[in-house]
Specification:
The chain is α+β, with helices and mostly antiparallel strands. Among the domains are: about 130-220, Roll (Pdz3 Domain); about 225-415, Pdz3 Domain (Roll), CATH 2.30.42.10. About 40% of the residues lie in helices and about 25% in strands. It contains 13 helices and 27 strands. The protein has helices at about 1-35, 95-125, 140-145, 165-175, 235-240, 255-265, 335-340, 360-365, 425-455, 465-480, 480-500, 505-520, 525-559; strands spanning about 40-55, 60-75, 130, 135, 155, 160, 180-185, 190-195, 200-205, 210-215, 215-220, 220-225, 225-230, 245-250, 250-255, 270-280, 295-305, 320, 325-330, 345-350, 370-380, 380-385, 390, 405-410, 410-415, 415-420, 420-425. The strands form ten sheets. Strands 13, 14, 15, 16, 17 and 18 form a six-stranded antiparallel β-sheet that branches. A four-stranded antiparallel β-sheet has the order 6-5-7-8. α2 (about 95-125) crosses α9 (about 425-455). The longest helix has about 35 residues, at about 1-35. The chain is elongated.
């Protein structure tokens, strides 16, 4: 039954996604055709025989049998069509070159512009945002050198008010590498700091180097009360275990570690009742896309009694902390297993370094291609050993043929966090700014991806067809409306860009034909045009078959 429901959801998500995108695309052709008084016979969503529809005026609006594609049929597009005197001047071919170009380009333009509406809508749901409150400052980076510290709130950058942490990153990026004047609130004081961003080179999604300006700060992140428990501690003796989620203390709800500490210290000298949720033994990492770890906690809660010493001043005195540096799982035959790391061990340091924020493992991941000295706690013992991340060369790293090297740590840390949020003080303004940035970043990513595909930097095995789109749509739908709209925006952008390619039968191919006609001042020879169109159809069908074959192989590989 579950399989049937998954199939139904996948099909429904695909139909809704494609239906909306095809409607928007064809609407572009239709509206410009109407603007220039071209007679439109049919506005169809889907291909094949008519299933349902209605006639309004001179146009038949219909849903066709196969929910892939759509079309706008205009007067004169069929060479065998006989035109009446009443239709004189209303055929597509009767219109000036510039009008025909606009009509044909209208579809891709609408597909490319539609994501702007979606991005604005998505961001308009952001009633709460991360404040420009500093949670982490990387030692040695410009922010640390300039004097920024955790807990500082950035009020403005170069005189421009900062409404949230994301806007702070925008202002830093837009300023480039020029010095920044920061207005900072620290407690009751206001500070003025000058800081020059540092050029940091990171790899993008294609594994290509990308240099961006960075200050070395991170937002304020709150650790959920998902605990690590030190062996031999008061908490361990009470029956608490690592990787349990504390939900209440003496019946009072607990969400983050700070709340847990406050309630326990208020009860110093007394016993408290703590309820926790435990993870299901069926949990396997990494979680499938769209799955939430919250769904893998056992429904029944466990209750323990913990006696809090009168002299306790912190969670550490009880042997409690965030699970951030506790090893949740170790892969067999990994470098981590080889040095003796096991579940429940606590990572202490890498090369003698302990992060002020984040996990110990992040230090090793930041410099993955050299050996490190790893320190950890195993039971009551402190251990230390040489540790290297395992290099997995391109071609072996992924199932999609992506040419990307990875460094596998061989272990998994598991901790839960919540971003600190506050009411959005500039909802529409930030939505407007974010809309354009989303459009720019995703357009660049899309064009880079297509370029990499055409030049062989990405394997053709990564191409996906209808099955992959259906799967992505279904996964996005499971994650909620925002994820589904985000996926719709990406595919609409892709649809618009691809349709501008100069391939016969695509809009880009039609634009080429019309442009040649304008240059020659006469139509392209009908026989030549027909042969080119046949070639385009064969090419598209071949690509569809190839992409579908990739979908099937991907499904078999992942099953």
């Amino acid at each position: 039954m579950e399989l049937v429901l998954d199939v139904v959801q996948t099909v429904a998500s695909f139909v809704v996604l494609i239906g909306v995108l095809v409607f928007v695309h064809e609407l572009g052709h239709f509206l410009f055709a109407k603007l220039f008084k071209v007679k439109v016979h049919t506005f169809a969503l889907g291909m094949g025989p008519r299933v349902v529809g209605f006639q309004k005026g001179e146009t038949d609006y219909r849903l066709a049998a196969f929910p892939i594609g759509g079309y706008v049929k205009m007067l004169g597009e069929d060479p065998s069509e006989v035109l009446g005197l009443e239709d004189k001047g209303r055929a597509f071919g009767d219109k000036p070159i510039w009008q025909r170009l606009i009509i044909v380009a209208g579809g891709p333009v609408f597909s490319i512009a539609f994501p702007l509406i979606l991005y604005f809508a998505i961001r308009s749901f952001s009633f709460e945002i991360q404040p420009a409150l500093i949670g982490a400052v990387v030692e040695g980076m410009p922010a640390h050198v300039a004097g920024l510290r955790p807990g500082d709130r950035i009020l403005s950058v170069n005189g421009e008010p900062v409404r949230g942490f994301e806007q702070l990153t925008w202002l830093i990026e837009d300023n480039g590498f020029a010095p920044l004047k920061l207005a900072v609130r620290r407690g009751e004081s206001r500070l003025e700091l000058s800081v020059s961003p540092k050029a940091v080179t990171e790899k993008d999604f294609l594994d290509a180097p990308k240099t961006t300006p960075k200050l070395g700060v991170g937002p304020m992140i709150l650790d959920r009360a998902f605990i690590g428990v030190r062996d031999g501690s008061i908490a361990a003796a009470a029956g608490l275990r690592s990787f349990e989620l504390v939900t209440t203390v003496n019946g009072k709800p607990v969400h983050i570690m700070e709340e847990l500490e406050k309630l326990l210290l208020l009860a110093a000298g007394n016993a408290v009742s703590i309820t926790v949720r435990t993870l299901s033994p069926e949990l396997e990492l990494p979680l499938p896309l769209g799955e939430d770890i919250e769904d893998f906690f056992e429904p029944a809660e466990k209750t323990v009694s913990l006696s809090v010493p009168k002299e306790a001043r912190s969670l550490a005195d009880l042997g409690l902390e965030t699970s951030r540096d506790y090893v949740f799982a170790v892969a067999k035959d990994s470098n981590a297993a080889a040095i003796g790391l096991t579940r429940g061990d606590k990572l202490l340091s890498v090369d003698g370094k302990v992060p002020a924020r984040g996990s110990v493992l992040q230090i090793a991941l930041a410099d993955p291609d050299k050996p490190h000295t790893l320190g950890w706690q195993h039971g009551q013992q402190r251990r230390e050993a040489q540790y290297s991340l395992k290099f997995v060369p391109a071609g072996e790293a992924g199932k999609l043929g992506l040419k990307k090297d990875i460094f596998d740590p061989g272990l998994t840390l598991l901790f839960l966090t919540d971003a600190l949020e506050e009411p959005n003080p500039a909802l529409l303004s930030l939505a407007w700014q974010g809309m354009w940035r989303d459009m720019r970043e995703n357009s660049t990513m899309m064009l880079d991806g297509i370029s990499a595909l055409l030049t062989g930097k990405i394997s053709l095995q990564t191409m996906g067809g209808p099955l992959m789109i259906g799967d992505l749509a279904s996964t996005a739908a499971k994650s909620g409306l925002v994820s589904f709209l985000w996926m719709m925006a990406l595919i609409s952008l892709n649809l618009g860009i691809i349709n501008l390619f100069p391939i016969p039968v695509l809009d880009g191919g039609q634009i080429v034909f019309i442009s040649i006609e304008g240059l020659l001042r006469r139509p392209v020879d009908t026989k030549i045009k027909e042969r080119i169109l046949i070639f385009g159809v064969v090419l598209l069908v071949a690509l569809l078959v190839f992409a579908t074959r990739n979908d099937i192989m991907r499904f078999i590989t992942q099953s």
